[in-house]
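Reply to dn_fold:

You asked what the input looked like. This is it:
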Amino acid sequence: MPPTPLRDRADKPKGEIGARLDSPAHVVDAATLAAIWRQGIVTWRLGGLAPLITDAGLPGRIRGAFGGRLSASASIQSLADAPCPWTPPCAFEALWRKQGRMNAGFDHASPWVVSVDPLHNDLNVTLTLFGFAGDWLAAAVEAMTAALVHDVDWRGQTGLFVPRIDIVGRHLVESEGIAPPPTAESFILEFLSPLVLTGVDPRERPMSLVTGLGQRLEALARWHDVTLGESFGRPALAVYARALEYRFGNCHIVRWTRGSRRQDRAIPMHGLLGELEIGGGGTSDLNIGIMLALGATCHIGGDAAFGCGRYALGVARLDP
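and this is what came back:
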């Protein structure tokens, strides 16, 4: 396969996966993307860890431990941030190493997210892979299982007691297709993890959430071998965003550190918990509901790779 031309000076040479992401087979609309949206969802239930749900930094530490386990079976080339030459490429290449630029100024997305939820006294940790990243699902399951048992800094800076790590259950499901929400007067996003926009309070630039979500969906569409084309280019997304109204409620700021004492580094972080109602005349466009339904699976805003921007989607229905 000939090398893909570099997008800009911040791009990098592409291997098999990067070239595939750069060359989607078809242009589709949002409804078609929702119909082919492929997920591999694995949930681990960890006994007695429910109190750790208050630690906003935990998903990031789980992410780091997962990457460490993936690196243990990686090729020398991918560890050196070069394309993996193996056939098929190693799981580290597919799931961890950055695949360069999708276009000038915008990177290809990592094709997975991590989330945590309490269940009685236990904690559920969920890993979701998107699109053809599911071809590495088996390797991801085993890497994450080992990371959860051996590598995660569960306590962090919480001071909480952490019992012996015991995976009391593991469940895997693969699905294809997301049902679009019903026509609505407004959509309500209840944030389950902090909402982040780089360098700004999300309440100050709510339109950026919609344009950023559109770009994220385009990046994840590439993991389904398709593109949303010009209908999800930045100018078109800006039109969608301006046609909407945004109302935040019940909000408070959450602060935490990203990183691990084990790694001897910590980055101050903050995000917003609460609700966001999106209404206005723009909600009559079916693309908005589809975008938000897809975003509920892959998160919105910044630092999605660290578990941020996860939400439950509700609707305020139109009168019949």
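Residues 184-317 form a domain with the Alpha-Beta Plaits fold (CATH 3.30.70.1900).
Hope that clears it up.
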